[in-house]
Amino acid sequence: MTVTPQWKVDLVDHIASTISESPVTAFVSIKGIRNKQLQGIRRALKGEATIRVVRGTLLEKALEKAGKKNIEKLKEFVGGQIALVTTLDSPAKLYSKLEKNRQKSAARGGEIAEEDIVVPAKDTNFPPGPMISEFQKVGLQAAIEKGKIVIKKEMLFVKKGDKISKEKAKILEKLEILPLDVGLDVVSAYEDGIIFDREAMSLTPEKVMADIASAFSQGKVLATDITFIVKEIMPELIVKARIQAESLAMEANFVDENNMASFILKAVSQASALQNELEGEPEETKEATKEEKPKEEDGAAGFGALFG
């Protein structure tokens, strides 16, 4: 029979007690986080949240012993590289604080580029030497100017979604380009018997209000389009009705004091168009018209003579 070491028993009891006493318990992913960065986040959240890296099996036992309603449902999120966070903050506030503590980090090689990584044309502090061949090896146009290595032309170094090679990661670090955005990603959280996923925690009051405002605006547009009469869109419907009435009156040539100015403008526009059309008439057409007029007059005179 295997005897559980006392230190493990004590650790599980301590974690269970911490979970039991904390209003909010959360799991965060620490994948890709370096120890230095984790310590920095711990310092930033000191007094607001406690972060502890615990083995999965011990964490599951602690959840079982915590004795809180539905807390054991968090066990399904135990796995991979995670850490336990206990806090007095709500899940949404915890999510917000962790997002604000994200940091830029150097690549090690093997990571997937989250965005296009561009190396700009720039001067470097490297003197002439083997570094220039390292730059050129990864495709950078490097040269020596004024005793320093310079990158002559901007280059799309790694496309979004591509893997960052170790060679390119090394060059990026030497150029002090930090392509990774790292931080603790909240996986799930527990509060008052409810399990929150990452998407639910990301719903800040500001985002909810923005979504409500957007939905209200879209609803007004739809209601106006289908002429669904409610008090919220009465001004828009009145404007819409007036525009439609004015358009119908113009088409039907119905003139009153309200649209007289529009009809005058319409008449001026039509007269101007007709004048332009006549002025653009070919010369031979004009001459033919002039020649035809006397003939019409002669014909009229002939008919007059017939009838005395």
UniProtKB/TrEMBL annotation:
The protein's name in its UniProt record: Large ribosomal subunit protein uL10
Domain of life: Archaea
Signal peptide as annotated in the record: none
SUPFAM superfamilies the UniProt entry points to: Ribosomal protein L10-like
HAMAP family: Ribosomal_uL10_arch
Subunit structure: Part of the 50S ribosomal subunit. Forms part of the ribosomal stalk which helps the ribosome interact with GTP-bound translation factors. Forms a heptameric L10(L12)2(L12)2(L12)2 complex, where L10 forms an elongated spine to which the L12 dimers bind in a sequential fashion.
Domain Large ribosomal subunit protein uL10-like insertion: 107-177
Lineage of origin: Archaea, Methanobacteriati, Thermoplasmatota, Thermoplasmata, Thermoplasmatales
Presence of keyword Transit peptide: no
Region described as Disordered: 277-308
Alphabetic keyword roster: Ribonucleoprotein, Ribosomal protein, RNA-binding, rRNA-binding
Function per UniProt: Forms part of the ribosomal stalk, playing a central role in the interaction of the ribosome with GTP-bound translation factors.
Annotated family: Belongs to the universal ribosomal protein uL10 family.
